[in-house]
Automatic annotation (TrEMBL):
Protein name: Amino acid permease/ SLC12A domain-containing protein
InterPro entries assigned to the protein according to its UniProt record, in alphabetical order: AA/rel_permease1 (IPR002293), AminoAcid_Transporter (IPR050598)
Keyword Flavoprotein: no
Location in the cell: Membrane
Membrane topology: Multi-pass membrane protein
A Pfam family this chain is assigned to: AA_permease_2
Signal sequence range: none
Membrane spanning stretches: 14-34, 46-66, 92-111
Amino acid sequence: MKQDRTTRYQKDSLTLSGTVMLGTGVMIGAGIFALTGQMAQMTGSLFPLAFLAAAIVVSFSAYSYIKISNAYPSAGGVAMYLHQAYGDRLPTGFNALLMYFSMVIAQSFLARTFGSYTMQLFGGDDSGRMVSVL
């Protein structure tokens, strides 16, 4: 039975290359297309330093995820890590829901940015209803 579960887990799991592509796609969408202009405007000539500082901060988070995913290999993601840390308690479910909601909110911001950029490309008003429709 355990062998069958392991085989199924491996078959249904993301590969390393698939995970890297998924993460890279999200980072490109958020970090490059949506925020680069705003970041450059805010930081001015310190723009490259700001990117370097962000990369250093993100590397700590990435390292933590690598270590915990090696310690608890699972397709459950953040919810499984929270379960391993806190058990079957209210904070586990609450924090897992917060994480999922934050992902939905982040994706909606990216979609709004896409709509805004598309409207600017075609000379439309990037603050109107068409942004939400796109």
